[in-house]
Amino acid sequence: MRIISGVYKGRRITAPSKLPVRPTTDMAKEALFNILNNRYYFDDISVLDLFSGTGNISYEFASRGTEHITAIDADYGCIRFINETAEQFEMPIDTIKSDVFKYLEQNGRTFDIIFADPPYNFEKEQFAKIPELVFQNDWLSNEGLLIVEHSKHTDLADLPNFSFSKNYGGNAFSFFEIPTENESE
What we know:
Blueprint: H1 26-37, E1 46-50, H2 56-63, E2 68-73, H3 76-89, E3 93-97, H4 100-104, E4 111-116, H5 124-136, E5 140-151, E6 162-168, E7 171-176, H6 181-184
Parallel strand pairs: 1-2, 1-4, 2-3, 4-5
Antiparallel strand pairs: 5-7, 6-7
């Protein structure tokens, strides 16, 4: 995987092959950050990276100037790899080894962007639990976005707070946000 833009643009990061991950493709990541670049100043936001795996998305945010990044993954090897990489590049990434669903059941601080990259073989109910817990427990700021990566064959458009989705190759991103007062009337 490589970092697309920012301070570490072009840097390649090679994760150990034994990690149970499927990193977001460079093409999909570049398209995602083009959308986000038109909406946010990266140095002004906080990011929660769920099912963070190799940390691919966290590194991209850090390279673009985001200073408040929290990465959550249940796999110790993934957390160790993110910690080592963040230390090597002096990136401000805090890691927490936890089951994502248990973590989201708590009331935590709010984030401007929450990115979730769960296993593509999740059942629809498992995907639905992510936005449900995020919105139920107030994890997202008022102007924030929850982005769920999934296979293009999975349709999340009927879930509450769904806003839009974009497909890139076999990947899709579904975007969720808090409705504004005009939208909720």
